[in-house]
Amino acid sequence: MNLERIPGIWFLLSGAVYVVGLPLCFAFAPREFAIGFAAGGALVLLNAWVSARRIKKADFPNRGRVTASLLGGFYVRLIMLGICLYAFIAYVHVDPVGLVTGLSVVPAGLLFMLVLIYVANRRPEEV
């Protein structure tokens, strides 16, 4: 198994969870919940994409500087994510449960990927 492909597969599966969940939310949930899901999912997928790009561009032979840069960028994105979540709840009036459900698309993609890895690596029982 090529371990370098795992983040791309994880991001793709998380995007698939978002794309499947979005029309379901708009079809079966209240409007505020669906908008919260859309906003939360978009924010977390954007955050994951930016994180992956920063890690790919990192120059790892300079460990101390790179680690500080990656952690600094992570904390800046975390603060910005908190500000965006506050703005969505306070000013756009989205449902907080829908927002949290949207934020969970990346962990759901991870869970789906781990299930697929488990199924792919199972060995058939001998008779």
From TrEMBL:
Cellular component, GO, one term: plasma membrane
Keywords: Cell membrane, Membrane, Transmembrane, Transmembrane helix
Compartments, record wording: Cell membrane
TM regions (residue ranges): 9-29, 35-53, 74-94, 100-120
Main location: membrane
Keyword Protein biosynthesis found: no
Record has Ribosomal protein as a keyword: no
Pfam families given in the database record: ATP-synt_I
Membrane topology recorded in Swiss-Prot or TrEMBL: Multi-pass membrane protein
Superkingdom to which the source organism belongs: Bacteria
The protein's name in its UniProt record: ATP synthase I chain
Organism: Desulfomonile tiedjei (strain ATCC 49306 / DSM 6799 / DCB-1)
